[in-house]
Amino acid sequence: MKNRSIMLQGTASNVGKSILCTALCRIFTEDGYDVNPFKSQNMSLNSYITAEGGEMGRAQVSQAEACYKLPHTDMNPILLKPSTDKKSQIILNGKVFDSMKAMDYFKFKPSLKPEIQKTYNRLLEKSDIVVLEGAGSPAEINLKDNDIVNMGMAEMAKAPVILVGDIDKGGVFASLLGTIMLLTEEERKRVKGIIINKFRGDVELLKSGLVQIEELTGVPVLGVVPMLDVDIEDEDSEADFLKYSKNKDGDIDIAVIKLPYISNFTDINALALEKNVKIRFVNGADELENPDIIILPGTKSTMNGLKFLKEKKLFEGIKECYEKGSFVFGICGGYQLMGKTLFDEYGVESDEKEACGLGLLDVETYFEKEKKTVLSKGIESIFGESVKGYEIHMGTEKKGQQAESFIKTENGVDGCMANNFRAVGTYFHGIFDNGVFTRKYLNMVRKSKGLNEYEGEIVNFSDYKESQYKKLAKEVRKSLDIEKIYRIVREGL
């Protein structure tokens, strides 16, 4: 099989397209095919930096890993990163292209079709199978003109489509039928199968419904996938933050500030693997309580994050907790918030030229027009451990006399720390993926509380992710008619 494709589209957002694409990527790869994922346009703040320094959506990174491939921006040529409710930064082929309001982008996006076609063709030429993912629903009739991510992309790729519906929300048969009926006749011809996702219970109870939906639509049901207990990194801010609170009786209480336009929240994933750690997301000072660690995560809009902290009384609440003994750890935008002053001379983030930060670190941030996107590694200065991560930020820093650098990198230094390591900030996304550092940091906090160090197994985060891809593929393979799916791939349209 060479140069074939298949596309998963959904009846709505968050129906499980990304995870099912990841499953198909791994299943096809296990069966000996050369597979690559593709999504023409992502809207997500949870981005990733490739080895070449390009920025792309996290979902296609997971899918690439499932194919045993290095992530590349050809897998996701357009990434939209919302900076306000009506405006997004446009990342094209991994680099910042422009910022546009929604209506301006709607008019502009047809001009991107040639670039999308070019990147898709490059990927197809080196693949046996390309697994394409749609976005939202193909039946948004107000947005269908000049579509570049659902049926418009299927047409460019000449790809058959499988439609995914989420039964957990209720109304799955109506949503499947309604979606298909709102498609044009030509678009309906592309839909070759239906998958019902996130089912809880006995499939026997569904059988009459499965027969009827096949009769009503003329499209075969390829299987019913149960609600899966797998931990695959999330695509965007629709993530279920409750999943991070598995260890409710943990002896280390970690409060993650849920900043607006929170980005790269997958930085927290590795922490959730640590035993005896309780993670909770905090929206206001009334929820803060007295945590052992406060984490200020990345945010697409640091200035809006600062405004949020003040409106929710977290600005003073964080400082009060810090004075009482809480450790504070900031990543990227969260690190910038921990500094003394933020300067925005060029209006990169807001109309406000200058604002005061939390003042926990002797650092000033200067926002600039150029974004830094790079894979980084170095030696952290608390325990002397090797660490690696990736950077995505538009700010440069100026450290004061009281500032002590956190990481010594190949090209200089990164981050800052103070007050016997109780305040630490870094631009390294993925800092907690470094298991030895993370365990030593948490044990340092335990020691400050008079607790014994935790000496359980240190989980390698990459090994953990691999175990989840295997589990996902096994469960989905059992639930779907894979032979029918291969037939769809081979026959195309």
Automatic annotation (TrEMBL):
Keywords, alphabetical: Cobalamin biosynthesis, Glutamine amidotransferase
RNA-binding recorded as keyword: no
Pfam short name (any one): CbiA
InterPro entries: Class_I_gatase-like, CobQ/CobB/MinD/ParA_Nub-bd_dom, CobQ_GATase1, CobQ_N, CobQ_synth, GATase_3, P-loop_NTPase
Keyword rRNA-binding attached: no
Chain ranges of the CobQ/CobB/MinD/ParA nucleotide binding domain: 6-229
GO molecular function: ABC-type vitamin B12 transporter activity; catalytic activity
Example of a GO biological process term: cobalamin biosynthetic process
Residues of the active site: C332 (nucleophile), H429
Pathway the protein takes part in: Cofactor biosynthesis; adenosylcobalamin biosynthesis
Domain named CobB/CobQ-like glutamine amidotransferase: residues: 253-435
Family: Belongs to the CobB/CobQ family. CobQ subfamily.
Described function: Catalyzes amidations at positions B, D, E, and G on adenosylcobyrinic A,C-diamide. NH(2) groups are provided by glutamine, and one molecule of ATP is hydrogenolyzed for each amidation.
Protein name: Cobyric acid synthase
Organism: Candidatus Fimicola merdigallinarum
Gene name as annotated: cobQ
